[in-house]
Amino acid sequence: MAALFKRFLNICLLANGPQDMPYSHVLFRILLALYLLTAMAGWSVKLEVSTALFASLVDVSMLLVFIRLALSVSGKSARFIQTATTMLGVGVMFQLIELPLMHVFVDEQKPANPEVGFILLALYSWNLAVYAHIFREALSIRLLAAFIVILAYVIAAMAGYQFLFPELNS
Q: Phi then psi for 74, rounded to 5 degrees?
C-alpha cells in the first residue's frame, strides 16, 4: 500500500506517469469506488446527498469517457486501464486534500475565507497540471497539447455540470 501511495505521490510531483502504474482491473475498480466516495463527499458540500451521488456518477462517467475517447483518437486504447487508474488515484488524493478546505470555504455561517480560496485555487491548478502530465505521458504528446486536452475536458465537464445541476450556479 505504501509503494502504491508513493507512486501516486510521484505522479503528483510529475516524476512518474501512468506507465508506472500496474495494469490491474482490481486496482482500477477499487480506485473507482474510492473516487465515487470522495467525489460524493465533495459534491455534498453544495448538493443534497442523492443529487451528490448522481453528480459523482456523472463526474466519473465523464472522466472515463473522456479518457477512453482521447486514447482512442490517438490510437492508444490499450493504455486505458493504467491511465484511468492513474487519473482516479490522483483524483482521490486531490479530493481528500480539498474536501476539508471546501467545507471551510463554503461554510454558510461565515463569509468566504480568501486564504482558503487561494489555497483551493492553487490545488485546482496543481491538479490540472498533474492531469495534463498524465495525458502527456498517456497520449505521447507535448505538454502544451496535453494542457489543451485537459482544458477541453474541464470546459466540457463544467458545461455538463451547469446543464445537469443548475443549483450549482447559485
A: -90, 0
Query: What amino acid is encoded at 42 in this protein?
Result: G
pTM, to two decimals: 0.90
Q: How far apart are CA 2 and CA 7, in angstroms?
A: 9
Tens-binned pLDDT, residue by residue, of the chain (170 aa): 788 899 999 999 999 999 999 999 999 999 999 999 999 999 888 888 988 999 999 999 999 999 999 999 999 999 999 999 999 999 999 999 998 887 776 665 566 667 877 888 999 999 999 999 999 999 999 999 999 999 999 999 999 988 988 877 75
Sign of the dihedral defined by the CA atoms of residues 153, 154, 160, 163, in that order: negative
What backbone phi and psi angles, to 5 degrees, belong to 17? -135, -175
Grid look-up 501516486 returns 8
Contact 98, 120 (CB under 8 A): yes
Do 66 and 122 touch, CB atoms closer than 8 A? no
Query: Is-contact 95 39, C-beta < 8 A?
Result: yes
